Amino acid sequence: MDPAIALQRAERRALSYLLIALAIFIATLFMPVHFATGWIRAAAEAAMVGGLADWFAVEALFRRIPIPGLAQHTNILIRKKDALGDGLARFVREKFLDTPSVVRLIQQQNPADAVSHWLGSYENTRQLSAVLVKVASGVLDVMDERNVQAFIRRALDTMIDRLDLSQSAAAILDTLTRNGRHQALLDETLDYLVELLNEPQTREFISARIVDWLKTDHPKKEKVLPSEWLGNKGSDMISAAVTRLLAQMEADESHQLRQAFDRAVAGLIERLKRDAEFQAKLDTLKTQLKGDTALNAYAGGLWNEWRSWVKRDLARDDSVIGAKITGAAAWIGQELAHSASLRTALDAQLLDAAERMAPGFADFVTDHIRSTVHGWNAEHLSRQIRLSVGQDLQYIRINGTLVGGLIGAVLYLIAQAPVLLARAY
């Protein structure tokens, strides 16, 4: 049934009780004076008083009643709407969101046990993964590409600004050269070069370069000389010579080229650490990197490729990301279930967080309640409350009429008791 229609019926019912009491009272005025007549009249009179008093009490909540001296105390819900909001906010804060209550609630719920039990179900972890996948997909859909690209550029610029190229490179080289590690790296490089020189493709490349040199710089001689033979022999000689030199370097730890390599590395480290001009060049390089359109475009391209891959994966039924989330959630549940110390630590962390966050959370909720109630339309609020509880309030009027009549009848009997006793004796 429509709440408005139900309220109207309840109001008519309460009014009918009051009208019945009025009709009985008027009827007794025309009856002969008698004990029974007086008793009924007293009951009807008291019923009218009770019904009218409760009618006033109920109506005073929702509208202004123009009775001199009392009107200022009516229309309570509309006049006191903001005060009611403040009181509700204060009540919620003091009785529900105070720090001891929040901490006690967490202690009673044993959140770590609840989490481990909930995550122990595959269906729950699957649903959690599905929700997180939808959230992630939605976030990717609503993200502004321009803002993301601008953020990436700012992040890249910030990272470059914070990076001390000279000191960082010096530290890396210091680490690489400690205990002769760079010599081991040099040995690996020499081995690779020897293998490369012994490759047929490498010798063919050297031979071709020798022939090209003869044709370019000595075209007349090249016509009478066996160019192909010279190229092949030259390639073999060069490869053999270089291979022999590299083998000597690899076998002799004190080889002069190794020592030259040590000096070059040490000199580079020293310049990185102390050469202001060299450091200035690196700083200039940083500035160039920040303004380099190709680098920014590359970073933006990486984001677009990553975003596209994630969206495609999230849209699949067998999403890799979704499977990882499900597996991670199940693993967390298993670890919590098997480790009492981990559950105790988690509960302790939650209690500590609750103690620190409860005051701020209480302020947020109470401010929200207060501002929300203050923003409501007072008349609309009054009307909605009346539709919600108005039917029950009409029973107050009915009870007031009935109880008032009963009290009036009892008081009449008490008042007439001396007369009745005198007649009896």
Automatic annotation (TrEMBL):
Q: Which residues cross the membrane?
A: 14-33, 395-415
Keyword Nucleotide-binding recorded: no
Q: Which GO terms describe its cellular component?
A: plasma membrane
Give a yes or no for keyword Oxidoreductase in this entry.
no
Keyword terms: Membrane, Transmembrane, Transmembrane helix
InterPro entries in the cross-refs: DUF445
The record's annotation in PANTHER family points to: INNER MEMBRANE PROTEIN, INNER MEMBRANE PROTEIN-RELATED
Q: What is this protein called?
A: DUF445 domain-containing protein
Q: Which organism is it from?
A: Pandoraea horticolens
